[in-house]
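JOB MANIFEST
job_type = single_chain_structure
chain_count = 1
residues = 150
[input]
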Amino acid sequence: MSLLTLSQAAKAISKSKSTLNRAIKSGRLSAVRNEDGTFSIDPSELARAFPQNAPERAPMVHHEPTLERPGTEDSSKVAMLEQLLAREREALAREREVSADLKEDRDRWRAQATGLLSDLRTAQEKTAPAASPEALPGPQSKGFWKRLFG
């Protein structure tokens, strides 16, 4: 089977490239770095690290027994609300992932700006002429009124 690029793998599992990149860096996903710096990912490795049809692990919740019969109208409302809750949890997980990606990008830009600023300051210090004693202004002469009245 052919290997997938980072973009192809991200599209295949509906995740962002930065999520896959973080998984590769953390060791959760194995990938091969090509000579040009891109990653090649085996589809079976992608399926192992990001299973598509695996049920999500929900926390164990103890439900109190109810006196309702399973075929009542309330149970259909409960089922509908549970589906809605599951969709909202998925949306929340996606939003948290996007937020983490944006924070990572922000931190990377901040580090780059800080580095460039320190480089600029270093360059300015090297090119600025050192203040010589001759260039410093001497004591100022007294004004007219000071000379007149002391």
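[summary]
Residues 73-127 form the longest helix (55 residues).
The helical segments are 6-13, 17-26, 43-49, 73-127, 144-149.
exit_status = 0
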